[in-house]
Amino acid sequence: MQKAAPAENKMGVMPIPKLILNMSLPMILSMLVQALYNVVDSYFVARYAQDALTAVSLAFPAQNLMIGVATGTAVGVNALLSRALGEKRPEVANQIAENGVFLALVGYAIFLLFGLFGVRKFFATQTGVTQIINYGVDYLTVICCFSFGVFGQIMFERLMQSTGRTIYTMFTQGTGAIINIILDPIFILGLKQGARGAAVATVIGQIVAFALAVALNHFKNEDIRLNMRRFRPNPAMIKRIYAIGVPSILMIAIGSVMTFLFNIILITYTRAAELSATVFGVYFKLNSFVFMPVFGLNNGIIPIVAYNYGARSRRRMMEAIRLAVIYAASYILLGMLAFMLIPGPLLKIFNASEDMLRVGIPALRIIGSTFLFAGVCIAMGSVFQALGYGTYSMIVSFIRQLVVLLPAAYILARIGMQTGNDTLVWYSFPIAEIASLITTLILFSRLYKNVIAPIPEGAA
Asked: Can you say whether the dihedral through the CA atoms of 189, 194, 199, 204 is positive or negative?
């Protein structure tokens, strides 16, 4: 008897608008929950002590880099795995998944060492305030030493995303975030653990989400079968994973370097010093409500574009790309209006003093003015990653944050110091976003000409 052909994956047949909604909505909702618990974290820390809030803000570059290593590795796994499924090669997909789990363990080992030996020096390079350093060490040591939860959670969530089972990532991320939100006031204020309590609540949520993601992959993900007992690292496959993933990691690493150096510029060349750095940290918490859902949209778009590229369906690829840009820009516009119209109420979420409002209100308005440009760049970045051109995303990030943003911030901060205008430093963000948009459009035009256009128009 002839064996029945396997059913076509929904990424190859479902109408694109419905498919984007099906793939992205669960991740968008889970990203919103993630953004909520980021804000709740800082909300309670701010009520414990402003120095603790400053410490959490200064911890962001290292914490962001850790998440960047985890997500960048997972991006490479996601794109390759989706492409292998589109090409009907399930055994290769399994091997990609197994190597991805191995790489998540390696990433955890690196940050465990940093958590044990590098945290205090990291904070001492940013500030000389002993209390801020102590709060920061309490927070970041716990985050790094128990980061196996976030590495495992992200990897196993991406295994589900790459096979189209994005609904389950909403369960894992939502569960972890809700646990964090419940535990935050208990550990931070109830047990008076401050910054350390915020970290404990965070890692408990991540570990529970990791366990749930493993269980859902085992019982619900029929396209992937892990067998780690017979696993041996495959150097060639790891190289392919990181050919896509390293640019994404470097892109986030560039962001961490930018944040680290921007904090130093603020503390050194503005009169508000640590207060300006606190506002900068609060900005990142608030903008997570604007950008994390767009990254959720991206996470849904990447496997769609990668699958249909593997299946040689140009029409479906272009429709997905067009709608991704429209959806991202539409949502970002709402966030831009919020930053422009109600910056004061947003800052008061974090128990902002009059001095913090004086610094923060113009900062949020200036930074938020070009959010729309950033939304287009993020949507295009997902296409670069899906087609194996993650290097393009890295180039955009490098130009935006290191070539344009930091030099502009340094120059404007020095001018502001001389003229008594601390607001000038924040104009470095609109300057950088314009440069980023121009670079992104040039690179996408090149990618379309060399990769997308050669696919026959009628390819299905």
From this structure: negative
